[in-house]
Amino acid sequence: MVSPFETDLKWETLLEYGTRQFVKGKTAIYKQKTMGEGFYYLHKGLVKIVTSTFKGKDRLVNIVVPGQIMGLQTMDQQPHFTTAIAVKNAVVYHFSCLQFLEMLKARPELLSLFTQTINQKMRILLTAINMKALTSEEQIARLLLNICEDFKNHEVPLTQQELAECAGLTRITVYKILKAWKEQGIIEIRNRSFIVKRPDMLKHSQLTAQTARTV
């Protein structure tokens, strides 16, 4: 879900306070355990937020779509506890703590909205922790539904490879699941995107069993 801070704010009027950066696909915007200073706003592209486990494996935390912010934890001078990776070429704006203070002078209402956004990010983190208790089918379904909700439509601008990278699953696993869903009329596969035709089926309690029989 997109927070009030991200939806109510007219970001185009505030981008002048930030520093524009172009990030190539599969490149880290910031890394876990490194010190940052400020936060980022995603203007174009798609970014996945991951955290490394004790075994060195990446766990998906969130998918950031245009119009959302990330990297908030370094606003209190703490190291990043996640890594942000551009799934495809992206344009981001970095706002330092000093630049944020300048924004507050112009828009005092940002303070309460900023707090709401931090609370929202914490809820996303808790959801991500529970994701690993789900099957591969349920993880992909949750991921697609979350992206649809953020984009406010049922078209997901990802390739199968990008979806696999976002979910932390193999491409063949994702291919088999999507193939089954296509045959069931749940999704439509296009060149570089997916159309979710039956979002109700992705929420259905029998989704995993139905897919498992097909796969």
TrEMBL record:
Domain of life: Bacteria
GO CC terms of this entry: cytosol
Tagged with keyword Cell cycle: no
Domain HTH crp-type: 134-200
Gene3D superfamilies: Jelly Rolls, Winged helix-like DNA-binding domain superfamily/Winged helix DNA-binding domain
Every Cyclic nucleotide-binding domain range: 1-71
Family annotation (SMART domains): HTH_CRP
The protein, known as: Transcriptional regulator
Keywords annotated in UniProt: Activator, DNA-binding, Transcription, Transcription regulation
GO molecular function: DNA binding; DNA-binding transcription factor activity
SUPFAM superfamilies: cAMP-binding domain-like, Winged helix' DNA-binding domain
UniProt keyword annotation of 4Fe-4S present: no
CDD domains: CAP_ED (cd00038), HTH_CRP (cd00092)
